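lol forgot to send this yesterday, sorry. struct tokens for the thing we talked abt
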């Protein structure tokens, strides 16, 4: 199984930077955008931590853990790629309405794909990633909590796979494209097609 945790962590940071630009123009949703940016940054840290913990155990993982990791990785990748695609529709010389429309489309997409906000999804992914970190650290963990989060992520992924409109339906993770990572401090907006 290819680990793409660092790449998805970088994509989460890139989306956070894009939403920071959206927040500059959308004064009606500053609080929602700020919380979403915080959740994206927290998810980025959680994915990096999980990647680090997997490296620390030398990649020796049991089948149940690998299944949970695959579920997390696919769900995060689908969500972030779809959000990135929506933000990619913002014109290069955007005006306020372009940013408002992009944020509205992100909200509508997330609601249509599981009745959860982007912030709620990111929080579930972050908690699940840290739950997997705890398993790797062999610390005590609440198995019911992990099972509940696994069930929520599986439901979100199922709804995404059955209702995707932005990107062709895929069950093969290898066909997802990675977004090039920008240098830190560079002003990032999604590539316009």
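and heres what i got for the seq, position by position
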């Amino acid at each position: 199984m290819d680990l793409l945790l660092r790449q998805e962590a970088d994509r989460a940071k890139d989306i956070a930077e894009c939403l920071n630009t959206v927040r500059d123009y959308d004064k009606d949703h500053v609080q929602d955008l700020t919380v979403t940016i915080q959740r994206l940054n927290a998810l980025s840290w959680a994915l990096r931590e999980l990647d680090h913990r997997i490296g620390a155990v030398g990649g020796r993982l049991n089948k149940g853990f690998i299944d949970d990791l695959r579920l997390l990785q696919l769900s995060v990748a689908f969500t972030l790629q779809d959000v990135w695609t929506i933000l990619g529709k913002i014109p290069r010389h955007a005006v306020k309405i372009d940013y408002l429309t992009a944020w509205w489309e992100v909200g509508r997409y997330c609601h249509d794909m599981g009745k959860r906000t982007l912030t709620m999804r990111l929080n579930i992914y972050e908690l699940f990633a840290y739950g997997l970190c705890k398993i790797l650290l062999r610390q005590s963990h609440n198995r019911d909590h992990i099972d509940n989060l696994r069930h929520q992520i599986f439901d979100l992924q199922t709804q995404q796979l059955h209702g995707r409109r932005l990107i062709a339906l895929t069950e093969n993770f290898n066909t997802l494209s990675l977004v090039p990572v920008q240098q830190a401090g560079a002003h990032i907006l999604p590539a316009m097609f």
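The chain has a mean pLDDT of 77. anyway ping me if u want another try
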